[in-house]
Amino acid sequence: MKAKYFNKSEEEKLFFAVLKNRVHKKLEGKNVSHGDFKFWFKGLFWTFVCYGSYALLFLDSISKLNFWIVYVIFQLSGLLIGFSFGHDASHNTAFKNKKANSILHFFSFLTVGIDPLLWGLRHIRSHHLYANVEGSDIDIDKNPFLRLSPTHAWKPKHKYQAYYAPFVYMFTLLHSVFMSDWIYLFSEEYDWMKRGVSKAGLYFRFFIYKVFYFSLVLVLPLLYVDFSWSFVVITYFTASAFTSLVFIIMLVGTHFFDGADYPQPEGEFLEHTWAVHQLYTSCDWNADKGWARFLSGGSNCHAAHHLFPNICHTNYSEINEIIEETTKEYQQPYHHKTLLQMMFSHFRHLNKMGNSNA
């Protein structure tokens, strides 16, 4: 990863100082650095749905269709555990205790398949610092399928990427499970990300996690349900594909949307301060809707999360209005759309990046 230096604009620094002061004043007296009742209720709700549906898979009377439906519910609700518990735990905002956060983080990702420690390291050490900066934000690294940034090389196939992207997105989670995780673990290219973490501990956690994951999603169903192994495996892959699509729908447009900034620094220097950089590169969707926060674990309030990652996501509803008002007052960007608008914006962006002149 290439480290960059943010602009030291006094005007932008003043904006963030005022914003922080207003947010802290609004939340004064509340324990916002760890989970509250709403946080635990929501996370435990999805945990109950996830493992309750998982238990139903082993009923003797279950039909093939019902097995598939229940398996999809198991996978989707498992993803929502990751959104509700795992994301906050990676930022140490679930518990006050760092070790407790690490344990919750591990178990919150069990049905997703992406190694939680590796994901957490790249999420915090790369993405949260340098969102949308080529060579510094892993999430925007070049990939063989899609051109997501004007900094990526154009190829003729990209003319059609807005049409084939949904099929790519269906395999995003599976690609992470079977390929990306292993590359992040073993490639020396990502040693900067793993710095300060014991290699032995990293490998041990990785393999223990993968054993837990594959035992849960494949081995136990293969051993204890009455359907053929081929049906169980097909169910796993199709449910994972469906879950992956939902995962991408909720997240991909929060940074890859029409109007997002993809900074190309001059030398080592970025155009804006860290805080304003987050606003130029992030998009909220339905940030004022409780149902959206319930499903996404606050990921729909992307500006709030990037600006205040040490505040538990159940508090975002109280600070979104402050962000909107303060950005307007100081003439800073704030991108907010409905989920549908964000997805249309994402595909407009894909279409634009499919142009060789973009």
UniProtKB/TrEMBL annotation:
It comes from Flavobacterium hungaricum. Pfam families: FA_desaturase. The chain crosses the membrane at residues 39-59, 65-83, 103-121, 163-186, 207-225, 231-252. Keywords: Membrane, Transmembrane, Transmembrane helix. The keyword Membrane applies. The keyword Transmembrane helix applies. Residues 67-337 form the Fatty acid desaturase domain. This is Fatty acid desaturase domain-containing protein. It comes from the Bacteria.
